[in-house]
Amino acid sequence: MDEKDLLNLWNKKRSQIIMAQIAPSLVLIAILVLAAQGIFGSASDAAKYLAIAVAATTGFLALISQYAAIREAQALVQDLAKVSKPSALAKKIASSQQLLSLTAVAMVGFGLGIFALVTWSILG
User: Could you give the C-alpha distances from 36 to 11, 22, 102, in angstroms and in order?
Assistant: First the structure.
């Protein structure tokens, strides 16, 4: 692959990460609205557990998609570093290996934290 193909692939991976956040964000918005209105206080246990399961499933599937895109992007930056006569943009992206690793760790950490807060807001 040449530099242009690698840069296009980089943009696709970034878009995949962003798109994978849409569904869980919508689920979290719905849960936030319902929790703020006190709906879960009078909901049945089954409804509460269903809300938690939907949030967990949606979030977990998004994390898998995001993590896969990051792993592929990590391989991509290694390939981009091998391009002869890279542009300034290619050099900058090729040097982002540590940022990608940090992003993967942050996604898991924030995902677990958000899930704990969602569970607390539903059962609390």
Answer: 37, 21, 32
Q: Round to whole Å and give the CA distance between 94 and 82.
A: 9
Report d(CA 16, CA 99) in Å as an integer: 17
Q: What CATH code would you report for 3-123?
A: 1.10.132
Give residue 13's pLDDT band: very low, low, confident or very high (50, 70, 90): confident
Render 35-85 in DSSP notation, one character per residue: HHTTHHHHS-HHHHHHHHHHHHHHHHHHHHHHHHHHHHHHHHHHHHHT-SS
Q: What is the pTM of this model?
A: 0.80
Cβ atoms of residues 94 and 80 within 8 Å = yes
